[in-house]
Amino acid sequence: MHNFRKLKAYEKALMYTKTVRLTTKKFPKDELFSLTSQFRRAADSIVLNIAEGAGNRSNKEFAKFLDYSIRSGHECIGCIDVALANEFISEKTHGSLFGEVDEIIAMLIGFQRSLLA
């Protein structure tokens, strides 16, 4: 089993959930059960899949859950794009949110590769 709490990617993903919540609080109220919820669940899923995967004894299984986290990161990118297209966020916020999740995805891919090497 892996100590996931010490992973930089986990720490960054955990902080990203906070950023997503602060951002989505400003979304229109009629988005609460659609984009707001979807974006929050996708961000949470990055963290939760890292944690769940760390409970596996094999590196191959952990890598599979990291893949789920990576996919959730890409889902966050889609949410960011939808938010920008609907003018819920500014270009600056879009860039910041994208940069953070892109970095998390890159870290997860690197870690995943090291597990499978």
Our count of helices gives: 4
Return the structural class: mainly alpha
- How much beta, percentage-wise? under 5%
In whole angstroms, how far apart are the ends?
Answer: 17 Å
- The gyration radius over C-alpha positions equals 15 Å
Order of helices and strands: HHHH
The number of strands is 0
Q: Provide the residue-averaged pLDDT.
A: 96
Q: Stretches where pLDDT falls below 50 for ≥5 residues? A: none
Based on CA inertia axes, which overall geometry fits?
elongated
Described by strand count, sense and barrel closure, the largest sheet is:
none
Kindly state the percentage of residues in helix: over 70%
Characterise the protein shown here.
It is a single chain. With 117 residues, the chain is an all-alpha fold. Helices cover 79% and strands 0% of the residues. Helix 1 runs antiparallel to helix 2 and helix 2 (32-54) packs antiparallel against helix 3.
Q: Topology, pairings included?
A:
Layout: H1 8-24, H2 32-54, H3 59-85, H4 91-116
Helix pairs in contact: 1-2, 1-4, 2-3, 3-4
Summarize the structure.
This protein is mainly alpha-helical and 117 residues long. 79% of the residues lie in helices and 0% in strands. It has 4 helices and no strands.
